[in-house]
Request: fold
Amino acid sequence: MDGGGSVLDVIVVTIDGPAGAGKSTVARELARRLGFQFLDTGAMYRAVALAAIRAKIDIRSADLLSNLVSQLDVRLNEDQVFLNGENVTSLIRTWEVTNIVSLVADNQDVRNRLVEWQRAAVQHLPTITEGRDQGTVVFPQARCKFFLTASATERAKRRWSDLQERGQDYNFEEVLTHQELRDERDRTRPFGSLIPATDAIHIDTDGLEIIQVVEILESWIRKSVSEPH
Ligand code: DC
Reply:
Protein backbone atom coordinates (compact mmCIF):
# COMPACT_ATOMS: atom_id res chain seq x y z
CA MET A 1 0.00 0.00 0.00
CA ASP A 2 1.58 3.33 -0.92
CA GLY A 3 0.41 5.76 1.71
CA GLY A 4 -3.16 4.58 1.39
CA GLY A 5 -3.41 5.94 -2.15
CA SER A 6 -3.57 2.70 -4.11
CA VAL A 7 -6.08 0.80 -2.02
CA LEU A 8 -8.83 3.35 -1.69
CA ASP A 9 -11.41 0.73 -0.89
CA VAL A 10 -9.63 -0.29 2.33
CA ILE A 11 -10.99 1.74 5.22
CA VAL A 12 -8.23 3.26 7.31
CA VAL A 13 -9.01 5.45 10.32
CA THR A 14 -6.13 7.39 11.86
CA ILE A 15 -5.91 8.72 15.41
CA ASP A 16 -2.97 10.99 16.15
CA GLY A 17 -2.18 13.10 19.17
CA PRO A 18 0.23 13.57 22.07
CA ALA A 19 1.13 10.98 24.71
CA GLY A 20 -1.64 10.32 27.22
CA ALA A 21 -4.49 11.73 25.13
CA GLY A 22 -6.21 8.32 25.33
CA LYS A 23 -5.49 7.25 21.75
CA SER A 24 -4.68 3.58 22.41
CA THR A 25 -7.61 2.87 24.70
CA VAL A 26 -10.02 4.61 22.36
CA ALA A 27 -8.57 3.01 19.21
CA ARG A 28 -8.63 -0.47 20.75
CA GLU A 29 -12.28 -0.17 21.78
CA LEU A 30 -13.29 1.30 18.43
CA ALA A 31 -11.54 -1.52 16.61
CA ARG A 32 -13.42 -4.04 18.78
CA ARG A 33 -16.77 -2.38 18.14
CA LEU A 34 -16.28 -1.99 14.41
CA GLY A 35 -14.46 -5.28 13.78
CA PHE A 36 -11.39 -3.43 12.48
CA GLN A 37 -7.75 -4.32 13.02
CA PHE A 38 -5.92 -2.08 15.53
CA LEU A 39 -2.36 -0.77 15.06
CA ASP A 40 -0.53 0.81 18.00
CA THR A 41 2.38 2.36 16.11
CA GLY A 42 3.97 3.83 19.26
CA ALA A 43 4.45 0.21 20.37
CA MET A 44 6.63 -0.36 17.29
CA TYR A 45 8.88 2.59 18.18
CA ARG A 46 9.03 1.27 21.73
CA ALA A 47 10.12 -2.17 20.48
CA VAL A 48 13.00 -0.55 18.56
CA ALA A 49 13.93 1.43 21.71
CA LEU A 50 13.97 -1.81 23.70
CA ALA A 51 16.24 -3.41 21.10
CA ALA A 52 18.58 -0.39 21.35
CA ILE A 53 18.75 -0.69 25.15
CA ARG A 54 19.48 -4.39 24.90
CA ALA A 55 22.17 -3.82 22.26
CA LYS A 56 23.64 -1.09 24.53
CA ILE A 57 24.15 1.22 21.59
CA ASP A 58 24.48 4.97 21.86
CA ILE A 59 21.02 6.04 20.70
CA ARG A 60 22.35 9.45 19.71
CA SER A 61 24.34 7.77 16.97
CA ALA A 62 22.16 7.82 13.84
CA ASP A 63 24.37 5.23 12.12
CA LEU A 64 24.20 2.72 14.96
CA LEU A 65 20.41 3.09 15.17
CA SER A 66 20.01 2.75 11.41
CA ASN A 67 22.13 -0.36 11.42
CA LEU A 68 20.18 -1.80 14.35
CA VAL A 69 16.75 -1.27 12.81
CA SER A 70 17.87 -2.91 9.56
CA GLN A 71 18.32 -6.13 11.56
CA LEU A 72 14.97 -6.02 13.32
CA ASP A 73 11.58 -7.39 12.64
CA VAL A 74 8.74 -5.76 14.59
CA ARG A 75 5.20 -7.03 14.27
CA LEU A 76 1.90 -6.21 15.88
CA ASN A 77 -0.75 -8.81 16.44
CA GLU A 78 -3.81 -7.26 18.05
CA ASP A 79 -2.51 -6.16 21.48
CA GLN A 80 0.74 -8.09 21.26
CA VAL A 81 4.07 -6.73 20.05
CA PHE A 82 6.78 -9.02 18.72
CA LEU A 83 10.45 -8.13 18.39
CA ASN A 84 12.29 -10.65 16.22
CA GLY A 85 9.63 -13.18 17.17
CA GLU A 86 9.78 -12.52 20.94
CA ASN A 87 6.66 -11.23 22.67
CA VAL A 88 7.79 -7.92 24.26
CA THR A 89 4.34 -6.49 25.01
CA SER A 90 4.97 -5.65 28.66
CA LEU A 91 8.73 -5.07 28.33
CA ILE A 92 8.16 -2.00 26.12
CA ARG A 93 6.09 -0.19 28.78
CA THR A 94 8.90 0.45 31.24
CA TRP A 95 10.07 3.90 32.26
CA GLU A 96 13.47 3.17 30.72
CA VAL A 97 11.93 2.60 27.29
CA THR A 98 9.56 5.58 27.66
CA ASN A 99 12.56 7.76 28.49
CA ILE A 100 14.47 7.14 25.28
CA VAL A 101 11.80 6.27 22.74
CA SER A 102 11.35 9.77 21.34
CA LEU A 103 15.08 9.92 20.56
CA VAL A 104 14.76 6.64 18.69
CA ALA A 105 11.72 8.02 16.83
CA ASP A 106 13.85 10.95 15.61
CA ASN A 107 15.91 8.66 13.39
CA GLN A 108 14.90 8.89 9.73
CA ASP A 109 15.85 5.27 8.90
CA VAL A 110 13.87 3.99 11.88
CA ARG A 111 10.87 6.03 10.73
CA ASN A 112 11.13 4.87 7.11
CA ARG A 113 11.25 1.24 8.12
CA LEU A 114 8.35 1.53 10.55
CA VAL A 115 6.23 3.43 8.03
CA GLU A 116 6.86 0.56 5.58
CA TRP A 117 5.75 -2.02 8.18
CA GLN A 118 2.68 0.04 9.11
CA ARG A 119 1.52 0.29 5.50
CA ALA A 120 2.21 -3.41 4.94
CA ALA A 121 0.21 -4.31 8.05
CA VAL A 122 -2.99 -2.83 6.62
CA GLN A 123 -3.05 -5.23 3.66
CA HIS A 124 -6.75 -5.39 2.87
CA LEU A 125 -8.04 -5.16 6.42
CA PRO A 126 -10.12 -2.24 7.67
CA THR A 127 -7.78 -0.65 10.20
CA ILE A 128 -7.73 1.84 13.05
CA THR A 129 -4.21 3.07 13.53
CA GLU A 130 -2.88 5.42 16.19
CA GLY A 131 0.35 7.37 16.59
CA ARG A 132 1.73 10.79 15.72
CA ASP A 133 2.06 10.78 11.91
CA GLN A 134 -0.63 8.37 10.79
CA GLY A 135 -2.93 10.91 9.16
CA THR A 136 -0.14 13.11 7.80
CA VAL A 137 2.65 10.82 6.56
CA VAL A 138 1.64 7.18 6.70
CA PHE A 139 -1.97 7.23 5.49
CA PRO A 140 -2.65 10.64 3.96
CA GLN A 141 -5.64 9.16 2.08
CA ALA A 142 -7.24 7.68 5.21
CA ARG A 143 -11.02 7.68 5.21
CA CYS A 144 -11.34 9.35 8.60
CA LYS A 145 -8.71 11.22 10.62
CA PHE A 146 -8.81 12.29 14.25
CA PHE A 147 -6.51 14.39 16.38
CA LEU A 148 -7.01 13.68 20.08
CA THR A 149 -5.73 16.09 22.71
CA ALA A 150 -6.05 16.75 26.43
CA SER A 151 -4.35 19.19 28.79
CA ALA A 152 -0.78 18.38 29.84
CA THR A 153 -1.81 17.81 33.48
CA GLU A 154 -4.65 15.49 32.55
CA ARG A 155 -2.39 13.48 30.25
CA ALA A 156 0.37 13.19 32.86
CA LYS A 157 -2.20 12.04 35.45
CA ARG A 158 -3.28 9.25 33.10
CA ARG A 159 0.35 8.22 32.42
CA TRP A 160 1.15 8.30 36.15
CA SER A 161 -1.86 6.09 37.03
CA ASP A 162 -0.89 3.73 34.26
CA LEU A 163 2.64 3.41 35.68
CA GLN A 164 1.23 2.92 39.21
CA GLU A 165 -1.00 0.12 37.94
CA ARG A 166 2.07 -1.54 36.46
CA GLY A 167 3.78 -1.32 39.86
CA GLN A 168 6.14 1.46 38.74
CA ASP A 169 6.16 4.11 41.44
CA TYR A 170 7.16 7.51 40.03
CA ASN A 171 6.70 11.03 41.27
CA PHE A 172 3.91 12.86 39.42
CA GLU A 173 6.08 15.95 38.79
CA GLU A 174 8.73 13.73 37.22
CA VAL A 175 6.16 12.19 34.88
CA LEU A 176 4.85 15.65 33.93
CA THR A 177 8.32 17.09 33.27
CA HIS A 178 9.32 14.11 31.21
CA GLN A 179 6.09 14.29 29.24
CA GLU A 180 6.78 17.96 28.39
CA LEU A 181 10.21 17.03 27.04
CA ARG A 182 8.78 14.19 25.00
CA ASP A 183 5.95 16.39 23.64
CA GLU A 184 8.52 18.94 22.55
CA ARG A 185 10.62 16.32 20.74
CA ASP A 186 7.52 14.79 19.13
CA ARG A 187 6.34 18.21 17.94
CA THR A 188 9.63 19.49 16.59
CA ARG A 189 11.22 16.53 14.81
CA PRO A 190 11.78 17.43 11.15
CA PHE A 191 9.84 14.44 9.75
CA GLY A 192 6.78 12.61 11.07
CA SER A 193 6.29 15.27 13.73
CA LEU A 194 3.19 15.56 15.84
CA ILE A 195 0.98 17.88 13.82
CA PRO A 196 -2.67 17.43 12.97
CA ALA A 197 -3.55 16.61 9.36
CA THR A 198 -5.38 19.54 7.78
CA ASP A 199 -8.47 17.36 7.39
CA ALA A 200 -8.36 15.85 10.90
CA ILE A 201 -11.27 16.15 13.30
CA HIS A 202 -9.98 17.57 16.62
CA ILE A 203 -11.33 16.14 19.86
CA ASP A 204 -10.34 17.52 23.26
CA THR A 205 -10.77 14.65 25.73
CA ASP A 206 -10.40 16.71 28.92
CA GLY A 207 -13.25 15.92 31.27
CA LEU A 208 -14.62 13.18 29.00
CA GLU A 209 -14.86 9.52 29.97
CA ILE A 210 -13.18 7.12 27.54
CA ILE A 211 -16.55 5.71 26.61
CA GLN A 212 -17.78 9.17 25.61
CA VAL A 213 -14.75 9.71 23.37
CA VAL A 214 -15.29 6.29 21.79
CA GLU A 215 -18.90 7.14 21.06
CA ILE A 216 -18.06 10.49 19.48
CA LEU A 217 -15.46 8.88 17.19
CA GLU A 218 -17.65 5.90 16.42
CA SER A 219 -20.45 8.09 15.14
CA TRP A 220 -18.03 10.06 12.93
CA ILE A 221 -16.59 6.82 11.52
CA ARG A 222 -19.98 5.23 10.87
CA LYS A 223 -21.12 8.40 9.11
CA SER A 224 -17.98 8.60 7.02
CA VAL A 225 -18.08 4.91 6.07
CA SER A 226 -21.69 5.19 4.92
CA GLU A 227 -20.88 8.10 2.60
CA PRO A 228 -19.42 7.57 -0.89
CA HIS A 229 -15.66 8.12 -0.83
O1 DC B 1 2.27 6.53 21.86
P1 DC B 1 3.56 6.09 22.58
O2 DC B 1 3.83 6.88 23.83
O3 DC B 1 3.60 4.64 22.83
O4 DC B 1 4.72 6.46 21.54
C1 DC B 1 6.07 6.19 21.82
C2 DC B 1 6.97 7.20 21.11
O5 DC B 1 6.99 6.95 19.71
C3 DC B 1 6.58 8.68 21.27
O6 DC B 1 7.71 9.41 21.75
C4 DC B 1 6.25 9.17 19.91
C5 DC B 1 6.79 8.14 18.98
N1 DC B 1 5.86 7.86 17.89
C6 DC B 1 6.11 8.44 16.68
O7 DC B 1 7.06 9.22 16.54
N2 DC B 1 5.29 8.16 15.62
C7 DC B 1 4.25 7.33 15.77
N3 DC B 1 3.47 7.04 14.73
C8 DC B 1 3.97 6.73 17.02
C9 DC B 1 4.81 7.03 18.07
The longest strand covers residues 144-149. The CA atoms of residues 12 and 83 lie 25 Å apart. The first helix runs from residue 23 to 34. Residues 1-8 have pLDDT under 50 and may be disordered.
